[in-house]
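User: I'm curious whether this sequence folds into something compact or stays loose and floppy. Could you predict its structure so I can see for myself?
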Amino acid sequence: SANSTVRLTLITPDNITLFENQSASDVGKVCFKQYGNYRLTVIARDGNGQTDRNVYTYTVEDVEPPVLTLEKTENIKAEQNTTVTLYNATAKDNHSACTIRVVVYAPNGAVFTLENKAEIKDVQLQLTMVGEYKIRYFAIDENENISSAYYTIEVA
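Assistant: Here's the prediction. I'll summarize afterward.
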């Protein structure tokens, strides 16, 4: 009826009220730019004073992986029983902090993690075996989005 109303309240993921008890016709468009849960409360009242209240949750998720940058990506040739410095790496995310993990796949099948930091710089690797070492970098953000890069070290 003409006396019916719909009122809206919207609260952001960090508990800031964008609008409170506003007429639906006054709100217009809303763009959810922040990651997390938005709470929309809708209160409808008919001409007889009957009220219906509903709360809706809208979740905005971060699904974008971090950008992983290695100083180089060329494969390396080296001699057995030498030490090499792995390529430095940084990672940047659109939303949260991220961690870089360097995983080494040795020629004998062994797998080990060298570093698990926000930045990889001047990491040394002792080359004790002949064969191919696969060096893989993983950048992981707080929402477990992953990007990766790799290169090999061929040891003669």
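Summary: The chain has a mean pLDDT of 93. The two ends are 85 Å apart (CA to CA).
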